[in-house]
Write a structure and sequence with these properties.
With 148 residues, the chain is of the alpha+beta class. Helices cover 23% and strands 45% of the residues.
Amino acid sequence: MTASCKIIASFLFFCVLLLGSCTKDDGNSIKPEDQLVKYLTGEVGNRVWRIKEVYQNRVLQQLTANQLRYTKTYTQTAGQAYTGIFTDSDGFSGKWMLTSVSQLVEVITNNTAGDIKTEWIINKLDANTMDVETTNNGTTTRIVYYGF
């Protein structure tokens, strides 16, 4: 192979690599925060979750009868990107806010003793599973939910 052929071959190889590494943005890419809200509230903006597992300080706890029946419903507020309301089967309700891709804040607003704020670290949130944890008074509580 002549020197000019090697140069042309190298140039063509470089061009193929360059073109192959390019990606086309079709305009349908979704921000991570938007995807998490979609997982949390479902396709229609309203989703029910049930407890699958509870851990206290990394120790798996046996679920009580109430925990086995427990549900929490997250609803997205119309016109609001990362906020909404929630209700649970214990009769509590309030507001939720996705403050980052790793934190969900809930404020129970119907507690007779006043509002209760919980900051949840999001370990995992996808189409089927929500895995969150919080630490309060030195105790870390991790709850794994499944959505339906």
